[in-house]
Design goal:
Helix content: over 70%
Number of strands: 0
Shape: elongated
Number of helices: 6
Low-confidence stretches: none
Distance between the termini: 29 Å
Mean pLDDT: 93
Length: 153
Amino acid sequence: MRVPASMQHAHDELHTDLDAATHLPGRTGEAARQVVRVLQPHFIREQEYVTPALGLLQQLVADKLSPTMLDVLPLTDRLKTEFPRMREEHRTIVGALQNLADAARAEEQQDVVRFAERVMLQAQMEEEILYPAAILVGEYLRLRFKAEDEHNR
């Protein structure tokens, strides 16, 4: 189960841009460091139990099923349970990003304002699309392998 390359690239770019913002002076740099503090634990959780399921999407669409895919079920079950927590963490992250955007606007750091807005949109996309898709990967696998098991009996 590999992280989709496009998703990995987007996350790498986000971290590069955020790291650059943390080195800025003033309120913008401090606000960026606060974003890092609230974003890092959340990002680790996403890597643990969101992205592995999303890495299976292309194989599932191609109908290339493998029993090893069932290894993702504990991860998608955990995401299903943790979904409210992940959404709450997004609220905290978006609040920190809004503070970053406000500080950057005041200090005329328009590239940082655009960065913060882009990450806020990313959080929304995760809640609306990526997390539900990851959960559905698990549900789909559960149903498909159950149906195949019943068919083979």
